[in-house]
Structure formats: structure tokens, C-alpha cells
Design goal:
Shape: globular
Distance between the termini: 75 Å
Strand order of the largest sheet: 3-4-5-9-8-7-6
Largest sheet: 7 strands, antiparallel
Order of helices and strands: HEEEEEEEEEHE
Helix content: 25-40%
Structural class: alpha+beta
Number of helices: 2
Radius of gyration: 22 Å
Strand content: 25-35%
Length: 174
């Protein structure tokens, strides 16, 4: 192999590596950008607000979604899409156990999400082979709040922005 060939291969390798790095960074940037732009409401959606008077939380939801029968303790709600009953929005809350009663609950997860009102929490997206979900967990004043949007895996991308918007608009009432 001549010196010229080695220099050419080296030049091509450097350019390929730079292009690959730029492509990776661009893909990451687009992914992050899509998360921030999804705080804009879906077009042509009329909204209602679910209000939980027992635990003091609320969130918007499309007004044509159907509420399932409520539980006896009024800790939350399940809403189902009118287009597909496997697409659900769930929300519930519960009182936290005191540390003395739950000594193994010292696991701490750093917040990675803030609602529009500035409450920090954990937003977890789980992609499974059949069912995928977006779950928001917040803790405030000894109450755990949970909100979840879920659908069949193949449809999750159709609902991602809607779910994200609702999670972002989730409010804890004072």
C-alpha cells in the first residue's frame, strides 16, 4: 500500500467519522426539539378539565374521551379514547406512607420534568412490545400524584404529543 492510499483512506475515515458525529448530534437535537414543541396543544381538539376534589389535582383532556366508572374512594379516573378503547388516560393519587412505616422506600429518583406550573416530577416513557405508556409521578405535601397515558405500541407515536401536552398541563391545586 502506498503512502498516498493511506492518506486518502485516513482522510475518508476522518470525514466519515465527522459526518457520523454530526448525524448523531442532529438526531439527538431533533428528538429534544420534538419534546419541547409538544407543549403546544393538538389542533382541532376541544378540551375539558378533570378535577379531583379529594386530592386536589386537575388536567385537561379531549372532551370526547369517555370516563370509565369511578372507584368508590374517588382517588382518580380512567378516560378512554372514543376512537380506540385500548388508548387510555389514567390519573390517581394516594397519601404517602410515613418513612417509619415504609423504611425500604428510601429510593430517590431525580426529577426530569417540570409541569407548566413549575412542579418537578419524574416523566417515564416505557415502550413495550405490546403496550407503551407515558407516566408522570409527582410528590407534594405527603401525597403521591400519578398520571398516565397509554396505548398499543404501534399507536403510541400517534398519541405521544397529546400525552406530553396533558402531562405538562397537569396541576396540583392549592
Amino acid at each position: 500500500m502506498s503512502t498516498t492510499t493511506v492518506k486518502t483512506c485516513s482522510f475518508k475515515q476522518r470525514n466519515y467519522t465527522k459526518i457520523q458525529s454530526i448525524a448523531t448530534k442532529t438526531a439527538l437535537l431533533l428528538s429534544l426539539w420534538s419534546c419541547t414543541t409538544s407543549s403546544v396543544p393538538e389542533p382541532n381538539v376541544t378540551w375539558d378539565t378533570y378535577v379531583n376534589s379529594r386530592y386536589g389535582f386537575e388536567f385537561p383532556y379531549p372532551n370526547d374521551w369517555n370516563a370509565q366508572p369511578k372507584g368508590i374512594n374517588n382517588d382518580g379516573i380512567v378516560l378512554v379514547s372514543p376512537k380506540n378503547n385500548s388508548v387510555e388516560i389514567r390519573a390517581w393519587a394516594a397519601n404517602r406512607l410515613p418513612e417509619s412505616l415504609a423504611p425500604n422506600s428510601t429510593t430517590t429518583i431525580n426529577p426530569n420534568f417540570k409541569t407548566a406550573e413549575g412542579v418537578s416530577g419524574v416523566l417515564l416513557v416505557e415502550i413495550d412490545q405490546q403496550l407503551s405508556s407515558m407516566t408522570l409521578s409527582l410528590t407534594q405535601n405527603e401525597i403521591e400524584y400519578h398520571w398516565q397515558g397509554r396505548s398499543q405500541n404501534q399507536e403510541f407515536s400517534d398519541y405521544y404529543h397529546l400525552f406530553y401536552y396533558i402531562a405538562y398541563q397537569y396541576r396540583i391545586r392549592d
